[in-house]
Amino acid sequence: MTPLMTTFTATSGAGAGMVAATTGPGAAVAESWAESSRATSYTDAELTGRIAEIERVIRQARMEQLELIAEADRRRLFAEQSARSTQAWLQNLLRIDSREAKARLQVAADVTTSPDAHDGSTTELPATAQTLSEGVLGLEHATIIRRCVRALPESAKQRAGEVEALLAANARRMCPRDLAKLAERITYTLDKDGALQEERAQHEARELHYATARDGMLVIKARLDRETGAKFVAALRPLAAPRPETDGEKDPRTVGQRNADGFAAMVDLVLDSDQMPRTGGQRPHLTVTIDFDDLKQRLTNGTPGTLTATEQSITAENVRRIACDCEVLPMVLNGDSLPLDVGTTQRTAPTHIRAALLQRDGVCAFPDCDRPPGTPQAHHIKHWIDGGPTELNNMVMLCPHHHRRIHDQHWTITLHQGRPMFTPPSSVDKSRKPKPGGKARPAAYRETLQGLIPTPRTPEGTP
């Protein structure tokens, strides 16, 4: 790979200590800084394009920096400058913390090729190096990909290239948080034993401490395994939701205050319950969104499950354990347990339809909505007043902000294979290109990872 070389020249006078890039990606960034005063003259489209272009150039410059870091490490420049390691040298040079310096050094080693490699070897992460060079993903994406590939068990090492290419391709359209979820899903798919051991280790590492501070307030510190953490989030989330607006004024409480109030409400509910555990305790509840027979078949082939409240993966072994001692609430699409439509006789979505919508869409189905958990609203795709039925296939979950935008700007919503598709008005996008919405569902993960899931082995003696 040919390095993207940039020349820097020092300035003097009032700007002493600053550097200006004269060639390469850095030059485009420097030029954009020089033209920053023009920002107010940009049209909305130009402003949007400029922001995206600068991000691409910055990421390309980051790839060049990674190549330079790898070369500096090969030359052991840190020794010449009396540093104990390249990481420490880089930390001092760039004034970044040790964790950031370590991440850059590790990624640099895996996305660059040593000039001494005469055996035709390539980089450890060629697909990641390519996307970094194109400026379509950042260092955090690359760190996640590297961590996932490095964590593959010996039995799956031969598939490292396949895994890396899959993650690099998805990184083009995913933020680091969603990419990390996909990487975790891959780990759970290819390393079931390791994932189960990790869950057991988390269970052993569980802890909760509480003490009364000098001012009389109770201080709680806890580390919960993912299963218990999911239960906690599922119980707290609806109780900590923002209060409805009153006379146009939003809930004045901070997130921390809402969580504290939600926790207090949860304690009150427990204390007021007639089912407070005295011997043994309550059995957990499991919400299932597929046919129960399908659930049993999926668990037998080792496919990991998902803790809906926290969107974390969980091994099939622990899903089976939970299911052994639970009450299963069937939430089967088009099933017989609960009718997922009430026709046009009822405008407000009843509880079971809201539950199905939340499972399908998440808190808000609008593309790239970052709305925190709160009070989502069920929107009729074909308006109820126009005869649109109150049923799953005619409804979509939206946060209050996007619910207003859908009505005010007249977006069009359709369902494609069960996934909401949002078509913007021409005032937002002249091409009116549909955008997929909804959350990343386990079904989508299964489709993405279909090629990675091993074929179940047939027991010996079975025809």
From TrEMBL:
Q: Does the keyword Cell cycle apply?
A: no
Q: Which SMART domains match?
A: HNHc (SM00507)
Region labeled Disordered — which residues?
417-463
Q: Which parts of the sequence belong to the HNH nuclease domain?
A: 352-404
What name does UniProt use for this protein?
HNH endonuclease
Keywords per UniProt: Endonuclease, Hydrolase, Nuclease
* Gene3D superfamilies the record matches: 1.10.30.50
The family classification in the record reads: Belongs to the Rv1128c/1148c/1588c/1702c/1945/3466 family.
Look up and give the organism this protein is from. Saccharopolyspora antimicrobica
A GO molecular function for this record?
Answer: nucleic acid binding
